Amino acid sequence: MPHNNRYYIIKSEDPNLPQIEAVIVGQPNTQRYNLDGSKLVVKLHQGDHSDYPFLDGVQEYDHEQILEALNNDQWQREIP
Amino acid sequence: MSIQYPIIPIATNPVGIDAVVIDLQGLLNSNLSWLSDGLGRAYKMNKVRSNGAAQILPLVYLGTSNYTYFSAQPDNDKQGQNFILVGDGLHINQQQGFYSILEYDISIIFSVNLKLINAPLLLTEDFTQNLMAQVREVLLRQTLGKPYNIGQITETRIFGDVYTEFDILDDSPNTGKAMTEMSYFRFNFSTQIKETCPVPVLPSISCFSMDLDGVIEYIQAPINTAFDLVRTDSMSFECWVKFDSFKLIDHLIAKYQVGKGIVFSVFNNELRFDLQNNSSTNRITKYTTGALITTGIWYHFVATYDGSENASGVKMFKNGVQLSDGFTVDTLTGSILNTQNVKIGAFPSAGFYSNALFNVARWWKTELTPAEILFPYNSGAPVINTVRFSDLILQSHSGNGATWNGSEFDIVDATGITAGYQTVNAEEVDKVEICPT
Hints:
The complex is a heterodimer of chains A (80) and B (437).
Chain A: E1 7-11, H1 17-21, E2 32-33, E3 39-43, E4 60-61, H2 63-69
Antiparallel strand pairs in A: 1-3, 1-4, 2-3
Chain B: H1 16-31, E1 37-50, E2 53-61, E3 69-71, E4 80-92, E5 101-113, H2 114-122, H3 128-142, E6 148-150, E7 154-156, H4 159-162, H5 172-175, E8 182-194, E9 209-213, E10 218-220, E11 235-243, E12 249-257, E13 260-267, E14 270-278, E15 282-289, E16 298-305, E17 314-318, E18 321-322, E19 324-330, E20 342-344, E21 346-347, E22 352-353, E23 355-364, H6 370-378, E24 392-397, E25 402-404, E26 409-411, E27 421-424, E28 431-432
Parallel strand pairs in B: 1-4
Antiparallel strand pairs in B: 1-2, 2-3, 4-5, 5-8, 6-8, 7-8, 9-23, 9-28, 10-20, 10-27, 11-16, 11-23, 12-13, 12-20, 13-14, 14-15, 15-19, 16-17, 17-18, 21-22, 23-24, 25-26, 26-27
């Protein structure tokens, strides 16, 4: 099942966060943060990096890449 | 004459015995002035408890948005009630290349309140035979010229024979009503119809699932006390799901905060069920062994719990078959209650998001039997009419019942308990026309 949108990992204190939140899927209060709250992962409704200057310098991930990037203990708790 | 339940559905293109049943229902309703509740086919029987005794009752589908069944047991509030039973079918003169004649056993079962029909007459006589004669008139005369035949008819007025397929209590000794007001009778006959050829093709039904990305998307139910089951409550979970990839753990259905609550999940290619008060020291955790769950395949998963507070009370099923127990922790003594929403496909607080297609997801406040688990699996998916509807507390037809509201999908709560479920962080393209196979 293709998920073709572009994902980005943003720092929580990114000064461009209000602009970013205006173009991403979901609401500001439903976004996914890492376990220490220092980063969040967002998904663009449409377009990519080149459409949004405020994402300059932020790494872009496709679906497969973002799954891999989040599959670690920064983003997931240990399982008892 | 008025029919008390005008919402009884009429199929738009019934064939075979279904067409006969609908035709008979129409003839009886239009010819019997005393028939206030002329019901259709009794589709299933429901085992209930009344005053400590088990009863198996006839249920007739009414076709409402909640897939409601009406219990057609005798009721002295109803002037005249009937329903139709369809028994075994027999192929007669079956030859390849020729039409077959199909013969079915049919029974029509009546319960009437003679007082409501004609109270003055009841003071002097039991006029049940008069009513039966009118039914005979319909079956033998009004069906002339129909594309089906009515075979030899037998009749009975003995209560136990009238309801022989059911366990219905005759409460006349308690109420005294049956001796005077209530009367019961039944007609048994066979009907012969010509096989429909060519075999009709059912209209295709679109079937949608919700495609969760495993990154930020999930489905959530609103807070409701109906979901506040405790460790002594029995419960069951059902889920049709197809994984695109796995994490270490993938939540199916959960009402969970970190360390406390209920979780049905997939862990390391096995099913896992948790009831937790404390994720380290106070919990039931049970894994299956040999489940061999993999990606790219639709699965029908079920977990049941008997409310015993023991891990032995947990059973898990894959595609209708109970799986062997694996690693188990059995230390639960504390409360599992928490204030979290029920979530399908994720546990955001811990960063667990399932990358999978979700179709139907259900939660019952009862322990389903193996037969009740096998039924929806064997019926294919999505099965709209499920077992134990009265014990359902969550039923999400995750794709089929979803409409895009501009920012998320609103998903119908088929139980009617809540105003509905909703996706979180979804996109309109996440509703995909893919059905469990």
